[in-house]
From TrEMBL, chain A:
Name under which the protein is recorded: Transcription factor bHLH91
Origin: domain of life: Eukaryota
TrEMBL record, chain B:
Keyword Nucleus among UniProt keywords: yes
Signal sequence, renumbered to the chain: none
Compartment(s) where it occurs, according to its Swiss-Prot or TrEMBL record: Nucleus
Name this protein carries in UniProt: BHLH domain-containing protein
InterPro entries from the UniProt entry: TF_AMS/ICE1/BHLH6-like (IPR051358)
Entry-linked PANTHER family: TRANSCRIPTION FACTOR DYT1, TRANSCRIPTION FACTOR SCREAM2-RELATED
Chief subcellular location: nucleus
Keywords linked to the UniProt accession: Nucleus
A cellular component annotation (GO) from this entry: nucleus
Biological processes, Gene Ontology terms: regulation of primary metabolic process
Originating organism: Citrus sinensis
Length: 460, 141
C-alpha cells in the first residue's frame, strides 16, 4: 500500500554520495597538518624530480574542499612517467594519509605492486591525468560507491589488484584500476562523481593497498610484481563493499527524505489505523462537551463546536467594535460637556454604528449542570438545568449581578431530579459579557457549590 | 479528501478558532468602557418612577396552598441587586423554593413562588408570620 522511497532512488543516491563525499572531504581537512608533513617526507624519500609547484598544487588539491584544478589537469594529459608517478604517489599518499593511514608494515611489500601497476596502467591507457586520482581524497565506502542499482562491474575482464584490505579507508581511484580505454574522462572531482552511476566501479581494496604500499620505502617502484595485480579477486571484495555501500546510501537517502518533510509511511496498516484513532481522540479532546465516544459522535460534536466557535468569534468582534464606539463617544461627549457640566444621554443616532445584530448561542455541560446561553443584541436567555441538591436560585442571581445582567424574567421549578430554570436577562450597558463568559461562569459557580455542599438528603 | 486529512484539518481549524477567541476576549477586556456607574442610578430611578406612575406598590401576599406549601407573591421595586438580596434573605430564613416565577414590569418585580417549609418540627407555617417576615425583608432591601 505504501511505496518505498528513498532507498534505491538513484537521484537521492547521487545526492547521498555527494554528501558523503563532502563529509569525507571535511574529514580530511583535519589531517591536513599531518598530511603535509608526511608529504614532505615522502618527497624526500621518493627522490623524484617533482616540481614544487605541482606537488603543492597536488597537496592543495587534496587539502582544500573544492578539489579540482582544471589547469593542472590540462597540463597533465601526458606527463612524463616519473613525474606522473611521483605525483600520483604523493597524491595517493597524501590522500590516503588524510584517511588516517597508520600502517607501515604491509606497505613495503605492496609498494612495488603499485609502482608496477602504475607503469602498466599508464602504459596501456593514455595516462589519465594524475590529478584525477589525487582529487579523490579520503572517502569511505559508504559515501563513495554508487547505488546498487547502478553499480555494475563494467569491465569484468580487467584485472584488479586486490591485496587484502589493511585499513578501513578507501582511496578512491577509479581511473587507476579500470584500465580504461582512452576515453575522455571527466576530470573534475564532481563530474566524476556524477558519472558514478554510469558504471564506474571502485575497487576500494586495491586502492587502499596501493596507498598503503606507498608509505614504505619507495625504492622498489619498478619491480615487477604485476603478477599480484593479475589476481582477479576484486570482484568478490567489490561486490561486498558495493552491497554495504548501497545499504548505507539507502540510509542516507532515507534520512535525507525524512529530514526534508514528514513521511507518511506506515510500516503496517495497523499503525495507520492507530494514527487515525489518535487523531479522533485529539479531536474529541478539543471539544468541550464530548457526548459519546464513537467516531460519528466525535465528528458531530466537532462540527457543532466549530459552528459555536465561529459564532463566538463574530460576537466578540461585534462586542469589541461596539465598545470602541461607546468609548469614543463617551470621550467625545466628555470633552464637549466639560463646560456644561452635564452628561448628555446616549445619542440614539450613535446606535446606527452597530447595525448588525449581535447574536450567539452556546451550550456547556458539566457533571451536574447544563447551561444554554443565547444572546440576541442585548438580551440574554439562559437555560439552566441542574441536579436538585442546592438552591441554585441564589447563586445564579449572584452570578447574574456579577455579570451585570438585569434579570427580567425567571421561570423554573422542579422536574424530577432536576431544577430547571429559564432566565431572561438584559445586559446592562457597558457590560462586556459574551456568551462564553456567562456560560463558563455559571458552570464554575455551580460546580463549586456542588463540591462545597456535602451530599445531604432531601428535605422531603 | 481523505479521512485523515479531514480530521487533521478539523483539529487545526478548531485550534485556530480557539486562539482567535482568546485573542478577542483579551481585546474585549482591554477595551473596557469607562464610567458605567452613571447609568445604574439612572435606571433605578426610572424604575421607581414608573412604579409610582402605574400605582404599583410593594406588597406581599402569602396564601396557604395546603399541605406544607405556601404560595407567595411579592411585589417590590426593581433595583439592581434587589432580587439577589431577596433570595439571600429567604435562604437565610431557610425557605426552599419550589416552582418559581419572576416577572418585571414597569420597574416592578413580581416574585411568585411556592414555599415549602423546611423547619423540621414546625410543619405548619403561619401565613401571617410569613407575610410579616417578607414585608420586613422587602422594606429592608
Amino acid at each position: 500500500m505504501y511505496e518505498e522511497t528513498g532507498c534505491f532512488d538513484p537521484n537521492s543516491m547521487a545526492e547521498g554520495g555527494d554528501d558523503g563525499i563532502s563529509q569525507s572531504v571535511k574529514h580530511h581537512k583535519e589531517d591536513d597538518a599531518a598530511v603535509s608533513a608526511i608529504e614532505l617526507e615522502l618527497q624526500k624519500h621518493l627522490a623524484f624530480n617533482v616540481e614544487d609547484t605541482h606537488t603543492q598544487s597536488i597537496s592543495i588539491n587534496s587539502n582544500t574542499h573544492s578539489i579540482h584544478d582544471p589547469a593542472n589537469q590540462n597540463h597533465q594529459i601526458l606527463p612524463p612517467y616519473e613525474h606522473s608517478h611521483s605525483n600520483w604517489d604523493s597524491g595517493v599518499v597524501s590522500a590516503d594519509h588524510m584517511g588516517g593511514f597508520d600502517q607501515n608494515e604491509n606497505d613495503q611489500s605492496q609498494q612495488s605492486f603499485i609502482n608496477t601497476d602504475i607503469s602498466s596502467s599508464f602504459a596501456q591507457s593514455q595516462t589519465p591525468p594524475l590529478l584525477n586520482l589525487l582529487q579523490f581524497p579520503r572517502c569511505t565506502t559508504s559515501s563513495m560507491l554508487p547505488p546498487n542499482s547502478s553499480i555494475s562491474f563494467t569491465n569484468p575482464d580487467h584485472h584488479f589488484p586486490v591485496p587484502p584490505p589493511t585499513s578501513t579507508d578507501v582511496l578512491y581511484d577509479p581511473l587507476f584500476h579500470l584500465n580504461l580505454p582512452p576515453q575522455p574522462q571527466p576530470p573534475l572531482f564532481r563530474e566524476l562523481f556524477q558519472s558514478i552511476p554510469h558504471g564506474y566501479s571502485f575497487p576500494a581494496s586495491a586502492s587502499r593497498a596501493a596507498a598503503n604500499s606507498l608509505f614504505g620505502e619507495i625504492g622498489d617502484e619498478r619491480d615487477a610484481t604485476g603478477a599480484f595485480y593479475e589476481d582477479g579477486d576484486v570482484g568478490v571484495h567489490l561486490d561486498n563493499r558495493v552491497l554495504e555501500f548501497s545499504r548505507d546510501l539507502g540510509c542516507i537517502g532515507r534520512r535525507r527524505e525524512t529530514a526534508g518533510k514528514p513521511t507518511k509511511h506506515f510500516a503496517t496498516e495497523r499503525q495507520r489505523r492507530e494514527q487515525l484513532n489518535g487523531k479522533f481522540k485529539a479531536l474529541k479532546d478539543l471539544v468541550p462537551n464530548p457526548t459519546k465516544n464513537d467516531r460519528a459522535s466525535v465528528v458531530g460534536d466537532a462540527i457543532e463546536y466549530i459552528k459555536e466557535l465561529l459564532r463566538t468569534v463574530n460576537e466578540l468582534k461585534l462586542l469589541v467594535e461596539k465598545k470602541r464606539c461607546v468609548r469614543e463617544r463617551r470621550k467625545r461627549h466628555r470633552t464637549e460637556d466639560d463646560d456644561e457640566g452635564m452628561k448628555p444621554l446616549v445619542d440614539p443616532a450613535d446606535q446606527s454604528y452597530n447595525s448588525s445584530l449581535r447574536s450567539s448561542w452556546l451550550q456547556r455541560k458539566s457533571k451536574d449542570t447544563e447551561v444554554d446561553v443565547r444572546i440576541i443584541d442585548d438580551e440574554v436567555t439562559i437555560k439552566l438545568v441542574q441536579r436538585k441538591k442546592i438552591d441554585c436560585l441564589l447563586f445564579v442571581s449572584r452570578v447574574l449581578d456579577e455579570l451585570q445582567l438585569d434579570l427580567h424574567h425567571v421561570a423554573g421549578g422542579h422536574i424530577g431530579d432536576y431544577y430547571s430554570f429559564l432566565f431572561n436577562t438584559k445586559i446592562y450597558e457597558g457590560s462586556s459579557v459574551y456568551a462564553g463568559s456567562i456560560a463558563n461562569k455559571l458552570i464554575e459557580v455551580m460546580d463549586k457549590q456542588y463540591a462545597a455542599v456535602p451530599p445531604t438528603s432531601c428535605a422531603y | 479528501m481523505k479521512k485523515e486529512t479531514v480530521i487533521e484539518d478539523a483539529i487545526t481549524y478548531i485550534r485556530q478558532l480557539k486562539g482567535r477567541v482568546l485573542f478577542l476576549c483579551d481585546q474585549v477586556l482591554q477595551v473596557e468602557p469607562l464610567e458605567e456607574e452613571e447609568t445604574k442610578p439612572k435606571i433605578d430611578e426610572n424604575a421607581a418612577e414608573e412604579m409610582k406612575n402605574c400605582g404599583i406598590e410593594e406588597d406581599v401576599k402569602v396564601t396557604n396552598m395546603g399541605g406544607n406549601k405556601l404560595r407567595i407573591n411579592i411585589i417590590f421595586g426593581k433595583k439592581r441587586g434587589n432580587f439577589t438580596k431577596l433570595v439571600e434573605a429567604m435562604n437565610a430564613l431557610g425557605f426552599v423554593f419550589g416552582d418559581t416565577s419572576v416577572t418585571t414590569l414597569k420597574g416592578a418585580t413580581l416574585f411568585s413562588s411556592v414555599l415549602e417549609g423546611t423547619h423540621g418540627g414546625d410543619r405548619i407555617i403561619r401565613v401571617e408570620e410569613t407575610r410579616e417576615l417578607l414585608l420586613k425583608i422587602i422594606r429592608g432591601i
